[in-house]
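Quick one, tokens below. Sequence please?
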């Protein structure tokens, strides 16, 4: 493909994918807008309760046969899907940039991370194996088998339109369940493109379904007694609501919420290596990552602080902003005008609360002739204190809050006062500091000289406190546990 080639050339009218067919929805349609160009790229429906019911009933019909399909045969569909994903890698990545705004390199990273989950799930014949022990009493044997449960639903956020559902869906179907995905209504195109490949990969009708819509569609799915479990990723208030609803209706649930991630910079760190890692952490994906850096806590004396701040500001002010399909661009727009408004609100709040705005991203220089609607440059606040709302709440945009601590203990104390517990990272050359950090910090994902502590597909995607509600996590072995019931058999033969 050439430099700025857009794979979506005309407005797509999105359909639901139910029972192996692309089905027109009778609901109202809304526009999906490329946040960089301002052009409409698709129209997505808000499905009705009846349409949700149809998806559930088809998945229910498909379950008995799919469950009986040997795991190795189920995996063959995943192997075919993996090949198709590789063949369409570039197009899938470009679609993400077009609907979300992230840079093409960030989209390629997202596609790769998604595919890795398909790869890990192809090991299901081994991952799903049970356990056994003979002679638990004289002549009696006991064994554990893992069985699929039925239909699961996956409710997705807007910031990783392609990857996040793949933290769950390949494991769900590989274990013998059927799945209904409700993509984010803001970025549904990537899941449609993925599902076109699912269709080609030969999954039996009804195993893998997609239904478009807003919160009401999610609620209809959650209310159904036929849905056995839910994997949700999104904001904390909705994660909490979904966790409660699943408690009331007896469903198993993974509910991943929002974040406010601290980056602790120790005076013994190598700043030349730390600053580039911090740039990607704070401003990659335009700050719209659940693993993004939000608060930078600089530990050390005035001299180190000045050196850190100068390097941080110098690197930040060089970030090139524009349309993510341009390979030279380092930061794309926010995903929507609404998202930009929210971030602007926090910048105002920070100023009112007395933080010092050292770099004001509100009037960014954009490379190329694109409307400014969703674009924002990086913003850097200094003199931020833990009680300010910009330090406490999730901004979800390219805003760095710089804070100071006298010691590592004080920095860890600041992390612990924050309600979120998604990720925290330390930059240091001291093994003792790093170990203390990983040992004490109450966050699910820890980075040591790593700015984005994103677990690989064979590790669980963790989270603590207000960032996670549940027990088992997405990805790898924990996902297999989530998508299967453990049955124990105790037997003796006369
Ligand atoms: P969101 O909570 O607004 O929406 C997420 C999904 O929930 C969407 O599909 C939406 O349609 C649906 N939804 C919204 N309100 C609902 C309701 N009342 N009942 C049922 N469903 C509802 O989140 P978002 O703005 O799309 O995503 C950004 C958020 O996701 C951020 O807070 C970010 O930190 C978080 N996130 C967390 C992780 C993680 O791993 N912890 C990963 C990615 C994103």
């Amino acid at each position: 493909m050439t430099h700025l080639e857009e794979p979506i050339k005309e407005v797509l009218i999105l359909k639901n994918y139910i029972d192996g067919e692309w089905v027109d929805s009778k609901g109202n349609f809304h526009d999906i807008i490329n946040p960089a160009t301002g052009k409409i790229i698709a129209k997505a429906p808000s499905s009705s309760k009846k349409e949700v019911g149809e998806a559930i009933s088809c998945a229910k019909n498909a379950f008995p046969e799919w469950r009986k399909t040997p795991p190795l045969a189920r995996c063959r569909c995943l192997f075919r899907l993996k090949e198709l994903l590789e063949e369409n890698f570039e197009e899938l990545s470009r679609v993400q940039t077009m609907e979300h705004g992230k840079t093409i390199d960030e989209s390629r990273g997202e596609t790769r991370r998604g595919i890795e989950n398909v790869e890990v799930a192809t090991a299901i014949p081994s991952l799903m194996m049970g356990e056994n022990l003979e002679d638990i009493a004289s002549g009696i044997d006991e064994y554990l088998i893992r069985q699929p449960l039925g239909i699961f639903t996956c409710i997705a956020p807007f910031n990783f339109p392609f990857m996040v559902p793949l933290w769950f869906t390949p494991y769900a179907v590989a274990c013998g369940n059927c799945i209904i995905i409700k993509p984010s209504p803001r970025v549904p195109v990537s899941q449609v493109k993925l599902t076109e490949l699912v269709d080609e990969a030969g999954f039996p009708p009804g195993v893998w379904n997609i239904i478009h819509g807003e919160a009401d569609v999610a609620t209809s799915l959650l209310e159904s007694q036929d849905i056995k479990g839910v994997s949700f990723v999104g904001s904390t208030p909705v994660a909490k609501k979904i966790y409660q609803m699943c408690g009331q209706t007896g469903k198993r649930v993974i509910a991943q919420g929002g974040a406010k991630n601290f980056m602790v910079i120790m005076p013994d760190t190598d700043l030349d290596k730390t600053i580039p890692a911090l740039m990607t952490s704070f401003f990659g994906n335009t700050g719209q990552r659940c693993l993004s850096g939000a608060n930078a806590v600089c530990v050390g004396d005035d001299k180190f602080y000045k050196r850190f701040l100068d390097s941080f500001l110098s690197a930040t002010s060089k970030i090139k902003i524009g349309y993510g399909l341009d390979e030279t661009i380092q930061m794309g727009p926010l995903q929507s005008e609404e998202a930009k408004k929210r971030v602007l609100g926090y910048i105002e709040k920070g100023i009112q609360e007395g933080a010092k705005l050292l770099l004001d991203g509100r009037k960014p220089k954009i490379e190329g002739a694109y409307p400014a609607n969703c674009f924002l440059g990086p913003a850097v606040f200094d003199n931020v204190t833990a009680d300010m709302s910009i330090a406490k709440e999730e901004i979800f945009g390219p805003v760095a809050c710089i804070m100071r601590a006298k010691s590592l203990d004080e920095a860890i104390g600041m992390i612990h006062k924050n309600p979120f517990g998604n990720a925290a990272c330390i930059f240091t050359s001291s093994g003792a500091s790093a170990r203390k950090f990983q040992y004490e910090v109450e966050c699910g994902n820890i980075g040591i000289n790593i700015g984005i502590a994103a677990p690989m597909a064979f590790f669980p995607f963790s989270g603590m406190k207000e960032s996670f509600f549940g027990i088992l996590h997405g990805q790898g072995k924990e996902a297999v546990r989530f998508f299967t019931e453990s049955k124990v058999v105790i037997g003796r033969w006369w």
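The mean pLDDT is 97. Residues 201 and 447 are 37 Å apart (CA to CA).
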